[in-house]
TrEMBL record:
Residues 119-155 are annotated as: Disordered. Coiled coil: none annotated. Residues 134-147 have a biased composition (Low complexity). It comes from Trichostrongylus colubriformis. This is Thioredoxin-like fold domain-containing protein. One of its GO terms (molecular function) is thioredoxin-disulfide reductase (NADPH) activity. GO terms for cellular component: nucleus. GO terms for biological process: negative regulation of protein ubiquitination; negative regulation of Wnt signaling pathway.
């Protein structure tokens, strides 16, 4: 398997961090044969799936919240179904979330397809207006960043997760979301980028309740509350993962704040 590389150059490194929205190093990003991003979470994807069950590790309709998927909470708003995490609870979560997760995933794929078609069309239009050099640059730009553009706002991005036995689930529920006293099962939508969450107030969890909750989210009818401040008495690490890292996965800063280096800063390997 070829491993293309280029000579170390701070300017190129900074450019790559901006193109692929890298917030820290080391970072492993998986690309397809045309240079489009498959996932920005290459390291966690491979650690979670050493046998290659989910190859080529693209997006999935539904994720179990654990040490390998917690990093995804910083990507976009997340609907999480919290349970006690027993085998029966996991089976229940998979059952009630199956239909909704598949429908939202199909919608996402269609949006991605339309977005890619629009990006390619724009590249072709730019190429027709320029010379051969600009055509080459436009093609490279289209292939490297086309699938990593933000999902249109009208798509209302929402990823779905359920909890299992990983201790990270309890830590997030109790120490980060401040919902340790709430009765389970519990549905909530967490938006780490905006710094707020909404808890579903329905007493029961079912397919119909999930569908209604998502419909209200898309209609902008939910009542949001700010994410609480970090609990200073919370454990410093959970499952070997520092608590600060888990909190960062939920409460993040803008890409510009997380960029590595700057125009006049030296980039250092960690």
């Amino acid at each position: 398997m070829p491993w293309p590389a280029f000579a170390y150059d701070p300017a190129k490194t900074i450019a790559l961090t901006r193109v692929y929205n890298i917030s820290g190093i080391p970072s492993l990003i998986l690309l397809d044969s045309s240079g489009r991003v498959i996932t920005n979470h290459g390291r966690s994807s491979l650690l979670e799936d050493p046998t290659g069950r989910y190859f080529p590790w693209g997006p999935r309709p539904l994720y179990e919240l654990n040490e390998y998927t917690v990093c995804r909470l910083r990507d976009e708003p997340s609907l999480i179904l919290f349970t006690e995490g027993s085998a029966d609870d996991i089976q229940f979560s998979l059952s009630v979330m199956d239909s909704l997760s598949k429908r939202l995933f199909e919608e996402r794929l269609k949006i991605e397809e339309r977005r890619q078609e629009e990006a390619e069309k724009k590249c072709e239009e730019n190429a027709e207006q320029g010379n051969g050099l600009s055509k080459s640059a436009s093609s490279e730009e289209c292939s490297s960043t086309g699938s990593d553009l933000p999902i249109p706002p009208q798509a209302d991005p929402l990823q779905l997760l359920y909890t299992g036995e990983d201790p990270i689930c309890d830590h997030i529920l109790e120490s980060i979301l401040g919902l340790g006293d709430v009765e389970l099962p519990l549905i909530c939508i967490v938006d780490g980028l905006a710094g707020h969450l909404c808890v579903c107030d329905r007493p029961d969890v079912s397919e119909a309740v999930l569908e209604e909750f998502v419909a209200e989210y898309r209609a902008g009818k939910l009542q949001w509350t700010p994410l609480p401040a970090a609990d200073q008495s919370a454990p410093k690490s959970v499952g070997g993962i520092p608590g600060a890292i888990i909190e960062q996965a939920l409460i993040t800063h803008s890409p510009s704040q997380n960029s590595i280096g700057g125009a006049k800063e030296e980039v250092k390997a960690v």
